[in-house]
Design a protein that fits this description.
- The chain is mainly alpha-helical and 97 residues long.
- It is built from 4 helices and 2 strands, in the order αβαβαα.
- The protein has helices spanning 4-29, 43-53, 72-77, 84-96; strands spanning 36-37, 70-71.
- Helix 1 crosses helix 2.
- The longest helix has 26 residues, at 4-29.
- The two termini are 28 Å apart.
Length: 97
Amino acid sequence: MMRQDEQTHRIGETYKQETEKLFAEWKKKAKGESFVTDGVINPDIWFKRGVVAGRTLFLLKEAYGEGHDWDLAKDHLLTDKKARPIRKKSFALGKRT
């Protein structure tokens, strides 16, 4: 029988693979325009929380390219000082549940 952590990791890896495929397909359709990827920042934590425990989802306005491809989560949400309030709120909400 598979342990919960192994199962969660496997689900997270499947999520990553499937989203990478989708992003590659969508990027081809963008026909040379800048392409912005996004998605779950840490799939292992996201899927470990489960539906019963609840998960916080932030929906942001449409991201537009800056003349080149970039990743919303990796290039901004995890590093940008402007995203710090989102990270703090997310942490606080996670502690409440």
